């Protein structure tokens, strides 16, 4: 019946989706060392990180099933994919950087908001493992249900790569500001203000383009010509604005 629904593009039930992901729920698709580490991480609730992921992923499957049409389920699956891939992108961009530099990315997200910053790196690693699992399972599910081809996978990769490019600009400039804190607080304040004035409006526009890409990928296909034109225009603007920003960064003695 599930095969027939897929062929006829009819919405699947929660039971259908759980059947399609049963194997991954039983044996999460992680490298052996990461799997063993995740199984050994026990939270205050008594759940291991893997059991926590199983519970969260099961809820995501229910969210997909709640959409009443095949297209709606496809769109919701991809929305969830983007959210989880986003955590992978944040981890890749921030894992070697001090938490104060990337606090704006997580400070209003539970449970980051509830714990001291010195524990954020460990929590980010856990979020990464959970996201990595969900991304792998959602992508496999999309391939089974929606027959995602190489072109669609390239669109997903383009979205991820562009998000990392935005994060790189944001975190590199934040790092320059943060490095001044403690020995030139006034200079750090001024440079931070310049980032707010010069760099952050560009980043905001880049995020709008990222959202447009996600919308197009989820509901149809990416308009690659239009998107490339916008990316190229932003690249020109970025070179100019970064030049202005760097001109105001104090030279190392």
Automatic annotation (TrEMBL):
Protein name, entry field: Uncharacterized protein
Domain of life: Bacteria
């Amino acid at each position: 019946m599930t095969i027939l629904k897929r062929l006829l593009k009819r919405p699947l039930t929660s039971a259908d989706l759980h059947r399609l992901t049963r194997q991954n729920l039983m044996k999460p698709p992680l490298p052996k060392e990461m799997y063993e580490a995740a199984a050994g991480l026990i939270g205050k609730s008594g759940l291991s990180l893997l059991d926590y992921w199983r519970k969260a992923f099961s809820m995501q499957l229910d969210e997909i099933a709640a959409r009443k049409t095949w297209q709606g389920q496809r769109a919701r699956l991809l929305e969830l994919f983007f959210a989880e891939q986003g955590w992978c992108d944040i981890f890749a961009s921030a894992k070697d950087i001090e938490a104060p530099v990337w606090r704006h990315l997580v400070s209003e997200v539970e449970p980051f908001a509830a714990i001291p910053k010195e524990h954020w790196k460990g929590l980010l690693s856990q979020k990464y493992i959970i996201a990595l699992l969900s991304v792998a399972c959602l992508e496999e599910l999309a391939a089974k249900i929606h027959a995602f081809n190489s072109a669609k996978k390239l669109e997903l990769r383009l979205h991820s790569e562009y998000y990392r490019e935005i994060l790189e600009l944001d975190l590199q400039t934040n790092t320059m500001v943060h490095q001044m804190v403690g020995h030139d607080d006034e200079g750090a304040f001024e440079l931070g203000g310049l980032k707010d004035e010069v760099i952050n409006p560009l980043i905001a526009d880049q995020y709008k383009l990222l959202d447009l890409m996600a919308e197009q990928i989820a509901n149809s296909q990416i308009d690659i010509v239009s998107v490339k034109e916008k990316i190229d225009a932003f690249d020109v603007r970025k070179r100019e604005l970064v030049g202005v920003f760097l001109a105001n960064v104090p030279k190392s003695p």
